[in-house]
Amino acid sequence: MAMAAEERSIVCGLCNKGRLVGSLKGLELRQWSKKGYIYFHVVLPVRVCDSCGAKSLGPGAELIMDEAFQIEYDKLP
After folding, report:
1. pLDDT at 3 over 60
2. Domain boundary assignment for the chain
3. Whose C-alpha in 30, 44, 47, 58 is 20 to 30 A from the C-alpha of 20?
4. Is the separation of the CB atoms in 43 and 25 below 8 Å?
5. Which helix (H) or strand (E) element contains residue 8?
6. What is the rounded CA–CA span in Å between residue 56 and residue 50?
7. Which of 25, 17, 28 minimizes the C-alpha distance to 54?
8. What pLDDT sits at residue 2?
């Protein structure tokens, strides 16, 4: 029998009461490189505790940021 999404949700590691609810959030970022600042936009998976409001990046967020940075970096001379 399949579990409901609520049953599979992750308990907040900060308050140990709430559940982490996933969503997507668009961010404008900049990162220093040897070519200067690289500006890029990403949409990342984010988890927010429904009790205390703690936020954390969801799975794959770092890879998304790295790839977006590299795309913009490669465009510069």
Report:
1. no
2. 5-75
3. 30
4. yes
5. helix 5-8
6. 12
7. 17
8. 44
Q: What is the dihedral of CA 65, 71, 75, 77, to 10 degrees?
A: 70
For residue 11 the two structure tokens come to: 């308990």
Looking only at the bridges linking them, the beta strands covering 10-11 and 19-33 are antiparallel
Nearest to 70 by CA among 33, 44, 27: 33
Confidence of residue 14 (pLDDT cuts 50, 70, 90): very high
Provide CB contacts within 8 A for 38, sequence distance 6+.
Answer: 30, 31, 32, 69, 72, 73, 76
* Average of per-residue pLDDT across 50-72: 95
pLDDT over threshold 90, residue 43: yes
pTM: 0.74
The domain 5-75 having CATH identifier 1.10.4100: the answer here is no
